[in-house]
Specification:
Elements lengths: L5 H20 L16 E5 L3 E4 L4 E4 L3 E4 L8 E12 L2 E10 L13 E6 L3 E5 L4 E3 L3 H18 L5 H35 L2 E5 L3 H5 L2 H10 L1 H11 L2 E5 L24 E3 L5 E3 H14 L9 E7 L7 H15 L1
Parallel strand pairs: 7-10, 10-11
Antiparallel strand pairs: 1-5, 2-3, 3-4, 5-6, 6-14, 7-8, 8-9, 12-13
Helix pairs in contact: 2-3, 3-6, 3-8
Bound molecules: zinc ion.
């Protein structure tokens, strides 16, 4: 911390501490722990402490100097609130928290358009208009390479040169998986958001579901929580249907309800309806949510910009965050 900047300590830490205690008292989390050197390496700076140079794509941070950035800020903004600098797999990231003009206005007919989305495992998401987001099973694709690298790591002498090399390879692979996942979710939520004014989702208990171990890995793989988080800041309005709303059991045409075991992939009703199970659920979610009201979300966007290249500190950071990677394995 001392290596960084006085403001990194005075500003970020108290925000975070405040958050940690709030989470603790509201029984969302355990008693806060001290930040460890093994945790993800990051610090925050207030917007007033940095200089941002759009033309040369760079940002000035006290005591570190000018950092070249791979991308520029993509939003029109009125103010930089703060930045968060973090390191992941040897790459440095600068995340800007910006004050932006809320340009999310109702497009033509958009006020009237709403979409219901059923989040699932076979298909990540099924929309009430029939759009399907296939689960890319990103984790499965990389499972073989992950296993190989983990075996390699186990063979190496802990702390040795080759062990560190494998650790770094693993970090890079984990980062790659996370990036791919982010990318496909972003594309989906953006496309939906361009088309619809109101996004209706199920209020899923992601935590409770991940406790079911068989489902856990897949649920985390499709990142329900992340889909939800992105809609919350992108969509004009997000509405939730209650957790125990019988979206799968109800017929979207006549409203009758029937038991729907998970193996039953189609909803067939006496009234003549014969629909894909998830599509039927998505339509129910939309119908229910549209009949209730929701609230607008505040306009704070976070843009992540990759700073270019590795810095001299990257080796040290590598050492510090290795245990975070081991936990995920
Ligand atoms: Zn029916």
């Amino acid at each position: 911390m001392q290596e960084v900047n006085a403001h990194a300590v005075s500003n970020g830490v108290f925000d975070k501490l405040d958050n940690a205690f709030k989470n603790f008292f509201e029984k969302r989390a355990k008693y806060p722990r001290f930040k460890s050197k093994r945790d993800k390496q990051s610090f925050r700076l207030p917007g007033s402490e940095i200089k941002y140079d759009t033309q040369n794509k760079r940002v000035y941070i006290c005591r570190i100097g000018w950092l070249k950035m791979r991308e520029t800020i993509r939003f029109d903004y009125t103010k930089i609130y703060r930045i968060t600098v973090s390191c992941r797999a040897g790459k440095w990231y600068v995340a800007f928290t910006l004050e932006v003009v809320d340009d999310r206005q109702l497009g033509e007919n958009q006020a009237l358009t709403s979409v219901g989305i059923d989040l699932g495992i076979n298909k990540s998401a099924t929309c009430s208009d029939g759009t399907i987001l296939d689960n890319p099973r990103i984790f499965n694709t990389y499972a073989v390479r992950l296993r190989k690298l983990n075996k390699e790591l186990a063979r190496r002498t802990k702390g040795g040169r080759n062990w560190w090399k494998t650790v770094f390879k693993l970090q890079k692979l984990h980062a790659r998986i996370a990036d791919l996942r982010q990318d496909y979710i972003h594309k989906f939520t953006t496309a939906i958001n361009r088309k619809y004014g109101i996004v209706c989702l199920e209020d899923l208990n992601v935590k409770g579901m991940s406790r079911n171990h068989k489902l856990a890995r897949h649920i985390l793989d499709v990142s329900f929580g992340e889909i939800r988080r992105q809609f919350e800041y992108k969509a004009l309005e997000v509405r939730y249907v209650p957790r125990f709303f019988p979206s799968s059991k109800r017929c979207s045409s006549c409203g009758r309800e029937q038991e729907m075991p998970l193996s039953q992939r189609r909803y067939v009703c006496d009234c003549g309806l014969d629909l894909d199970r998830d599509l039927n659920a998505a339509i129910n979610i939309r119908t229910f949510a549209v009949s209730s009201t929701g609230s607008k979300k505040p306009a704070v966007k976070t843009a992540q910009v990759l700073s270019k290249g590795k810095t001299k500190q990257s080796h040290g950071q590598e050492e510090n965050s290795v245990f975070a990677v081991r936990r995920n394995v």
